[in-house]
Amino acid sequence: MVKSIILIIALILPATIIAQVSAADSVQNHVKGNKLSLGGYGEVAFSRYFYSDNVDRYNSPDTYKNAPGHGKFDIPHAVLYVNYDFGKGWTFNTEIEFEHGGTGSAYEKEAEEGGEWESEQEKGGEVELEQFWIQKSFAKWANLRIGHIVVPVGLNNARHEPLNFFTVYRPEGENCILPSTWHQTGIDFWGRYRQFRYEVQLLAGLVSDQFSTTGWINKGAKSPLEYDIANKYGVSLRIDNYSIPGLRLGVSGYYGHTVGNSFPAETNSNKKKGALAIGSVDFTFNRFNWIVRGQADFGYLGDTDFINSTLYNRINKKSPYHHSTGVSSHAYAIGVEAGWDIFSQIEKLRQDGQKLYVFGRYDNYNPCSSSNMKKYDYCKIQRMAIGLNYLPMKQIAVKAEYSHRFLESKYNNEPSVSIGIAYQGWFM
């Protein structure tokens, strides 16, 4: 009996550790042994929201209490990976992302305006180069990457592919307060030593002119110009530990200055730094037919009085920067989700590799948690979701969920239903 138990453990533990190692580097890994590797991920989603989408629903909650709901079809992300191994430790990787179906424009001949040709925006969305880097690997513990890289601060940024969360859309709390996916041009040193993986990055500072009331710093990594402004700089750090089979523990953080990282450089900001500090802890547990994930992120932004005066002065002006009424000095996002595989109890489905997770998720977040932002108390949100994830194979998931946002008592709560399908993997 004891020998049987030891044999089972010997078979299970290496597979568990290998699975975690692969998950930790899912966006960077290429298929071993191939010079050229192609992969990607994507999502298609439908949602029905049982509340008003009017922009004044928080200013006049009674007016919109019984307003009709709304719905949407969406392609949140469609991503293509291309990876090439040059040999001798040199590799290249790029990631092209189409958000919400990409963007489009067209010329039309306007009969109502004398037959003039006009360029019109056909649809919203974005096309972004999310990764573009060249790497030199000296050893397992020493890899140097230069180019456009993902900033792995928080659980969502480190593991943002759709099979790494149960909800139809990316986890809402982190997605609100932090850039998602956070990607910038910089220098990255990473490696592995025993049961640790570590990563440190030097980046251009975030742009305080892009901060906002309801999104805190989540637009700060985007530059409206043809290049990333680097008058100020930032550093990020991430450490993951895999000592316990089935469990990954991670800590990450960021520090940098944000004021003056604009064009043209502001001459009156020499004494202001807009220091930004973010700390995050997260974990993933994948064992015994359970997957449990969680994170807690806390952030502080200095010199907000100066930043807010700058943001306010931009309102109604033809500026390429984000227009906002102010940004909070503090923000937080806490979230946890747990799912259990029902098919693990059905031998035929288990042997076929199919999984059906029933899950629940809880988020608590506030991009306006400082005392001077109390009038934006509608930003303080608790969200609960329950649903199913069906995986007919390990690369595909069909998702369904019911979610409910709980706001302060004077506002209307926000329930919704969403369904989606997602894929994630390497094609060659």
Q: How is this structure best described in words?
A:
The protein is built from five helices and 19 strands. It is mainly β and 428 residues long. Strand 7 and strand 8 form a beta hairpin. The longest helix has 23 residues, at 2-24. It is globular and about 55 Å long. Mean pLDDT is 87; it is low at 1-24.
Number of strands: 19
Taking all Cα atoms into account, the compactness measure Rg is 23 Å
What percentage of the residues does DSSP assign to strands (E)? over 45%
- In the predicted model, the low-confidence regions spanning at least 5 consecutive residues are 1-24
Count helical runs.
5
Question: What's the overall average pLDDT, rounded?
Answer: 87
Query: What is the 3D shape?
Result: globular
What kind of sheet is the major sheet? 16 strands, antiparallel, barrel
**Structure class:** mainly beta
What sequence of helices (H) and strands (E) makes up the elements? Answer: HEEEEEEEEHHEEEEEEHEHEEEE
Helical residue percent band:
10-25%
Oligomer: single chain
Strand order of the largest sheet: 1-3-4-7-8-9-10-11-12-13-14-15-16-17-18-19
State the distance separating the first and last CA atoms.
43 Å
Summarize the helices and strands and which ones pair or pack.
Layout lengths: L1 H23 L11 E14 L20 E5 L2 E11 L2 E10 L4 E7 L5 E8 L2 E14 L2 E9 L4 H4 L13 H6 L5 E11 L2 E9 L28 E9 L5 E11 L17 E13 L2 E12 L2 H11 L15 E12 L5 H5 L3 E12 L14 E13 L2 E11 L7 E13 L2
Antiparallel strand pairs: 1-2, 1-3, 1-19, 3-4, 4-7, 5-6, 7-8, 8-9, 9-10, 10-11, 11-12, 12-13, 13-14, 14-15, 15-16, 16-17, 17-18, 18-19
